[in-house]
Each structure stands twice: as structure tokens, then as C-alpha cells.
Amino acid sequence: xxxxxxxxxxxxxxxxxxxxxxxxxxxxxxRDINRDIVLEIIRSQQPVARADLARSSGLQPSTISAxxxxxxKEKWVSEGAVLRPPRGRPSTLLSLNDAMVILVAxxxxxxxxxxxxxxxxxxxxxxxxxxxxxxxRSVGKxxxxxxxxxxAHHGRSFEGIGISVPGRVDPDSQRLILAPNLKWGNYDIKGxxxxxxxxxxxxxxxxxxxxxxxxxxxxxxxxxxxxxxxVSEGVGAAILANxxxxxxxxxxxxxxxxxxxxxxxxxxxxxxxxxxEVFASSNxxxxxxxxxxxxxxxxxxxxxLRMAEEGDKTAIEAVSRQAIHLGRGLRLITAALSPEIIxxxxxxxxxxxxxxxxxxxxxxxxxxxGPAPVLGITKDxxxxxxxxxxxxxxQRHSGYQKSxxxxxxxxxxxxxxxxxx
Length: 421
Known about the structure:
Layout: H1 27-45, H2 50-57, H3 61-73, E1 77-83, E2 91-96, E3 100-107, E4 111-118, E5 123-130, H4 135-152, E6 157-165, E7 168-169, E8 176-178, H5 189-197, E9 201-205, H6 206-217, E10 226-231, E11 235-241, E12 244-246, H7 277-280, H8 282-292, H9 301-309, H10 313-337, E13 341-346, H11 352-365, E14 374-377, H12 383-398, E15 406-407
Parallel strand pairs: 3-6, 6-9, 10-13, 12-15, 13-14
Antiparallel strand pairs: 1-2, 3-4, 4-5, 7-8, 10-11, 11-12
Helix pairs in contact: 1-3, 2-3, 4-5, 6-12, 8-10, 9-10, 10-11
């Protein structure tokens, strides 16, 4: 099946195609694309009959039958109730297989949230694991928690492990190459957990994972250009450009948080002075509070946001400074990428009613020209990183792309593959 492309009256005729990123589709490529389409229809319309799959996809019933049998054999799909219409033959309804599950972890500098998720991204278990500075000990604690969840759900089929990390991951080696706030150096997280769990591990940058979760949920349907900004200990970003999540050859695309905006500012974890994240992160808000109230007790970002919601003037001032710097820094994104929408994920979104308008105001004032992008927040809060880690496993293991995939500069772009039914 040839993926649909948009055209306008002004682009008729021969289009220029970059042949470095195009290859003629083999019959195997076409089967993979059709398989992706069928899996997406099952996911979005479940429970669904084979006849409805044929109508929705435009594929022949024999093709649908072959794909469904393959998905059932691989345990991605299961058969359920039998639908007996007033006329015609009975149909067996298909759904994603509830028995298949994924272990996920959202790793932060001080703790990891470990969870068990099914194919519909429903959480079956969730636990916080405190971490230490030694990466080997920390990974051991994460693996022990996962082993406990595995033992408690031994009747399930475990597809793999997804891990969201606060840093950039090399697409080829799957190792951290930049994580100033985690400070785990060159430790092989993937290899260590695979050795302990005997399951395939997929590592992903937290922002990219969150963006993939938004795409998986359908909340960005119809959006071709977007940026998702994660705000926690640091500030990270993920880029959706022309329907593709961009990671670049090295995996470093989107590091706006380490763009210097004030050369006289505080030293950042990356070694430079005055990066955006030292002014706009959750750690920045805590620093502002400590400066405003030097005799006050130490607080967490959750404490600070709760105090602000309760009307504490110092807490409000501290988070307001963070919000203003976050909004001003979005100029880096609008000037470079001009997205349709900017999504914010992270701690500050829990007080969006109070601080969101400040960010919006700074965003609008910083535009070079034209209206500002739509500004919004992710819906799942801290769960978006976990759902994203699960979506990474689903994407890489099932072959399922939902027409959007992590595209490095040396990746074949699926939209440009020429395939025939």
C-alpha cells in the first residue's frame, strides 16, 4: 500500500525526491506496511471483526486473514467473543492481547518509577525505587523491582523492557551519550539490565518517549510539526518534523535545554554557563526559592508547587520566575522550528492554571512574526514517560510505526517507500 501524501494545486507534476533516502519497496516492505495498518486499526477500533478490518484498510480479506494469523501467532492479538449478526456468517472479534505485558522504568537522578504495562498501556503495577550515585547498584535495584513484578505476574507473556532516561541515547549503541543530571557516565544500562532480566531492553530519551506516547494515544493526530518540552531536573525537547520524530545521527537533536541564553548565568551540568535549563527547570525553581528564603527548610519541587497552590507568596514568586524563563526560552524553539504546537510535560504542569498563562504570555511576546504555536500540556503527568517507554518497545518490537518513527539521518523514511498493493 502506498502511503498517502498531501498535494496542492501548486505542487503538481514531477516532485523532487531525495534518492539518498528512498528505496523501492520489496514485497516484504509492503507486508510490513500493511501489517502496521492492520495493527493500528485493531488497536484503535478493538474489538473488531476481520470483515471490518478489510473495510477500514481497503485490503483484501485474504490479506487480512494472513496478517491476523501472523499477529495472533506472535501474541500481539487475541481472539475474543463471537459476533453473530442477524444475517451472514458469525465473526470472531479481535483485540490486542491483554496477556502480553511490558516492564518499564522512568529513571530520574534520585529515583526510578518501575511499572508493568499491558498492550493497551494500562498499568498493572507501579513502584518507586530510590537510586544512589553508583549506577551499578541503582540498576541492580531497578532490576530487582522488575523481577518482583515478573514473579507476581508469572502467567503473563513479557515482551521486553522500556526505559526512559533523562539524557540522549545513541541510536546505534543504545548507550547514554549525554546525561548531565544523571551523571552515570558511560555505564551500559541496557546491557546490565538485559543480563539480569534476560529480556530485550529499549532505551529512549525521556522527551522522545513522551512525544511517542502522545502520538500513540492519537492526541497529535493531524499534527505534522510539534515540539514536546520536558521540564524536570533539566529541560529537554523532542521534535516532530513533517510527521517524523527527529533524533539525528547521534541522537542529540532537541537539546535546547543546553543552549546558553546568558553567559553570566549559573554553571550548567553540561559545563557551560547560563543554559536555558538552569533558569527554567524544576531545579531552577528550587534555587530561586532558596535565594528568596535562605532561612527556609529544604523543599522538593512537589512541596514548592503545593505551597504555591496554597498561596505561599515566596513559592509563587519562585515558580513564577521559572515560568517566565521557560516561556522566554521557547523562542529558541519557535525561531528554529516554527512548530504548530508546543507541549509541556513535567512538574510545572500540575499548576498549569496558575503558571501556564505566564508561559503563554512570554511565548507570544517572543515571536519573530505571526501567531504563536498552540501551547498545551501532556495529559498523563509523570505517567507520560512510562507510557512512552512502553510505546518504544511496542514500536521497535512489533514493527508498528503509526506512520511516525524515530528517524535518524541514516534511516529509510517509510513515507517515501514506493509500494504496491
